[in-house]
Amino acid sequence: MKMAIHLMIAFGVPLFLSLALTPLVVRLAHAVGAIDRPGGRKAHSTPTPRLGGVAVAVAFALSLTSLVLLDTVLHFPGWLSGSRGLMLGVSLLLLVLLGVWDDIRELRPSQKLIVQLLVSTLVYAAGFHVSGITNLLGDGKLDLGVLDYIVTVLWIVGVTNAVNLIDGLDGLASGVSAIALLAMFPIAMLQNDPGTAVVALVLAGAVLGFLRYNFNPARIFLGDSGSLFLGFMLAILSLQSSTKSSTAFALLVPIVALGLPIMDTLLSMVRRLIRSFLPQSNTGTKGRRRWSGMFTADRGHIHHQLLARGLSHRRVVLLLYMVSCGLGIGALAITTANNAEASLVLVVVGIALVVGVQQLRYQEIAVLKNGVLLPLFDTQVLNWNLFQVFLDIVFVIGAYGTAHIISNAPNHNVYIENHLWLTITLTTFIQFVIFWLRGSYKATMRQFGLADSLAIVKTTLLAVTLSGSVLFLLDSPRLQVDLPTIVLDFYFLVTLAVGSRLSFRVLHHIFRRHNHAARKVLIYGADREGVFALHRLLSADGDFLSPAGFLDDRPSLEGKHVNGYPVFGGHWKLERVVRARSIQEIVLSSDDIKPEVLRRLVVKAKQLGLAIRRFNVRFDEVHSPSPGPALADRLAVLQHNTTGQSVKTQL
Q1: Residue 203: per-residue pLDDT
Q2: Which residues, at least 6 apart from 420, have a Cβ–Cβ distance to it below 8 Å?
């Protein structure tokens, strides 16, 4: 009972202080000119003061200091005292000052990133780090070694900026942070870490007091002073919580608890990266600028997408609160469950996130549904042949390493230490030499087709077979391989090699289908000529025509799909399809159309204001060396078979 009362005090004191301090900070923001003016990407319509983080940070610091001095029951963590606590306090002060300066004068993102890296390095030196991750295939933990520093800094900087990125609507970042903190409190208590739990509770109280003034319509914003402070503290608390746990999923618990800001950040980076390499975007843009596009602000965040779907400001925020609560419950469930149950929870959370992202309807993410790589070879960053060589080396290493780990999971610890890297080195050398000798880097990627794909499959089969045979023949205890590893290696490598080479054409096809600026076209005839016309439309230069589907009078085809495009039915369905799909033109795929059907199409097209074009191919003789009868007959057959198809047409 006494502990419960002290916990209520630990939550209530910062709540009261934050409620009292925030109006004072509003006046301070007006006095120093820390005002966020509407316009651009911003969702608010009236000038609103920033510096809200000052109220949260001061309430948190005063509450924590008073509780530490006056209370010994709550067992505050040792990392808040001594040199560690001092270095953490200095780091937080630097971040708050950085945010205050940005709220008043606005710094460049690169300047803020440099300070964040320095502060993250400072707390790493103080002892806040990820020393290892749980070994899912054995006992104990895998030591990260030199990667310890990199992983820790990436986590701290990533979470800090993730909270900063979702601070786009009234009360969103503060509410999501409060939910994450309230989820961390019971998780830390269950892990016998009451000190971290109390710190999370105190910070949650300070944030919820501020949320009274930050919820829509907001009287004050968090600003960078608040979002950087909250993100940094969430990163530190999650680090402390994960290091106290010995469960197999310890590292995933904070990731799930902070799932919304992390997911929004990853989505933003993936979207911007994909968009920067799209065939129809950034024409002529230099490589460095394309990569920098990953960090350029836009209106594509999760909350922006929900606003675009017609939801009100408050409904978007409340919906994202519910998502955060669900992720917090999921993190708590993982903490209390055994490995099998935790795996099920992760699967459910993963499925829910995938479905949610699909509902956001990001055009850039459509490429991921096809499981192909980005068309990096279309950039000016590197020579494509050299870049494909680099990719193939990475693919060979990744394919064999993954195959080896999967097929030798029971012996993973010993086998990976003594044998894997030597085996991978020899395998990579042999397989790459085969790829080189077979001419895999002489194909033109823009016209990479079925025959080229079959050649890559044959080359991959030869390379994997030869490398496996060499390992068998050497018969060394340090170079061991088995048949399952070879089979899996072939499967992974052929998928990666063919997928990377086909990615440009697949991407081009996807975004031609979703080109909203082009005129919508119906193709009459879902036969071989219609398919050929479809391919010609999709590969034509320019964006003036976009196929919507087929019309075909054969009842057996109605409702079917041809090359991924629907067959709407016969010509009598024209008016209904035109109105439903906003069709602007009709393309006749061949000359083989009944005169009566053509007359009806023309009459209906006039009524609906549609254009009709005919799609055909023609062979014009430029020069003939008087071919013999056999060649002349073949040319006649060829011309007969291709009449109504397309190379150069009236389009």
Answers
A1: 93
A2: 401, 404
Instruction: Give 241's pLDDT tier (boundaries 50, 70, 90).
Output: confident
Least confident window among 224-233, 281-290, 588-597:
281-290
Q: Which of 162, 205, 160, 159 is nearest to 182 (CA)?
A: 205
* Other Cβ atoms within 10 Å of 518 Cβ, number: 17
- Is pLDDT larger for residue 158 or for residue 641? 158
Convert 141-155 to b/e letters by CB count within 10 Å (16 or more is b): eeebeeeebebbbeb
DSSP state of 416: I
More confident residue, 242 or 307: 307
**DSSP notation for 85-148:** HHHHHHHHHHHHHHHHHHHHH---HHHHHHHHHHHHHHHHHHT-S--EEE-TTSSSEEE-TTHH
Average pLDDT for the chain: 77
Least confident of 123-137, 407-421, 457-471: 407-421
Say yes or no to pLDDT of 415 above 50: no
What value, to the nearest 5°, has the Cα angle with vertex 163 and ends 158 and 167?
140
Judge whether 569 and 558 are in contact, CB under 8 Å. Answer: yes
**What residues pair up with 550 in beta bridges, in sequence order?**
523, 567
Q: How far apart are CA 324 and CA 502, in angstroms?
A: 38
Sequence-distant (6+) residues with CB within 8 A of 282 are 275, 276, 289, 290, 293
- pLDDT band at residue 232, thresholds of 50, 70 and 90? very high
Return the half-sphere exposure (C-beta side, CA atoms, 13 A cut-off) of residue 575: 8
Average pLDDT over residues 370-375: 45
Measured distance CA(29)–CA(57) in Å, rounded: 15
Please list, in sequence order, all residues whose beta carbon lies within 8 angstroms of the beta carbon of residue 308, skipping any fewer than 6 positions away: none
Q: What are phi and psi of 227, to 5 degrees?
A: -65, -40
Say what the pLDDT of residue 117 is: 92
Could you tell me whether strands 141-143 and 519-524 are parallel, antiparallel, or unpaired per DSSP bridges?
unpaired
CATH 3.40.50.720 positions along the chain are: 517-642
**Residue length of the chain:** 651
Q: What CATH number has the domain spanning 517-642?
A: 3.40.50.720
Under DSSP, the state recorded for 43 is: -
- List the structure tokens of 366: 């459509």
